[in-house]
Amino acid sequence: MPRRTTAAAAAGLLALTLSACAKSVGDGPGDAGASAQQQVEATTGDASLCTPERYNGGVPQLDLKNVTVGFAQSEKEANPFRITETQSIKDEATRRGIKLITTNAQSDLNKEIADIQGMIAQGAKVLIISPLNSEGLDPALKAAQDAKVPIMTIDRLLTTKKACVDYVGWIGSDFVKQGARAADAMITATGDKGEVAILLGASGVNVTVDRTKGFKDQLAAKGSSLKVVAEQTGDFTREKGRAVTEQLISANPGISAIYAENDEMALGAVAALKAAGKKPGDVKIVTIDGTRGAVQGIVDGWIAAVIESNPRFGPLAFQALEDFYAGKGVPAKTIISDKEYTPENAQAELPNAY
Ligand code: GZL
């Protein structure tokens, strides 16, 4: 083994240190530090926690360090939510010394099914899945069931499937509560008056249904004077968010507020408002995710508030799998808590954004 010269070794060590340092201060999407990690707010589901004996008629006991775990990502990694989610899974697998293989469905349901089936064929003995839609994964779930490969789901919920039968458990945010918190922030930002447009998330996803329900129900519960005059899907993408906002403000010139069901669509809306000659604050925007771009948008005056949807699932997802095999069991639902970014805290909290 050729010995490296002292200079080269020092350079290598310096590079290693710098890269670790860059990561620790949150240089770009990824982890910003301990306070950015997901925190458990509540767990639900029937009392019987899921264990290998109870799951899917019983599955083999195993040591995670001796098998391959597969991670199926849903949407293309153009959105910092997805980039950070995947990085968090990879970082935690590395930290725990677990062999990980990953796939990305590029926002295509049939590809996510094929990805999951492919990882089982490659020998993955456990899966972590971030579902693209709340339904439609049946062929992949059956392949895992037949192969006795347990699935931990994160983020979007498989609404027609059963915990400890079709999947071990689920970890994610309370999306209805996110919508309600967005409504409260919108009431504050607008002084509870004006016309609101909603940029809906992708269809067929519980996140969209819940964030919309939470927002509208909270406006009604608070007896708000805000009026929802338009709602259209922007598919959770920046480009569609921009295009839809252009149409909405042209058809509804009285729009004074936009509720975007994710930051990528909100940033698309900002681009459309800029192109229309609007100034920061002319239209109040409230959005959900907590990406660096959106929180910077608060600092710059374009965005009024951001409700976080924390994508750093790595630690809790792998802890759930450890608990599963240790016989401690996994609850049907683990709900995480989410921060809120406002004009008062955005600058200071920016390092926790992703
Ligand atoms: C929410 C997640 C959503 C994000 C979007 O947990 O499913 O999907 O809010 C992403 O940014 O597209």
From TrEMBL:
Subcellular location field: Cell envelope
GO MF annotation list: carbohydrate binding
Signal peptide interval: 1-22
GO cellular component: cell envelope
Keywords, alphabetical: Signal
Record bears the keyword Signal: yes
SUPFAM superfamilies documented for this protein: Periplasmic binding protein-like I
Pfam family, one: Peripla_BP_4
Every Periplasmic binding protein domain range: 78-320
InterPro entries, per the entry: Peripla_BP_I, SBP_2_dom
Principal location class: other
Family listed: Belongs to the bacterial solute-binding protein 2 family.
Alphabetical list of PANTHER family matching this protein: D-ALLOSE-BINDING PERIPLASMIC PROTEIN-RELATED (PTHR46847), GALACTOFURANOSE-BINDING PROTEIN YTFQ (PTHR46847:SF3)
Protein name stated in the entry: Substrate-binding domain-containing protein
Native source organism of the sequence: Nonomuraea turkmeniaca
Taxonomic lineage: Bacteria, Bacillati, Actinomycetota, Actinomycetes, Streptosporangiales
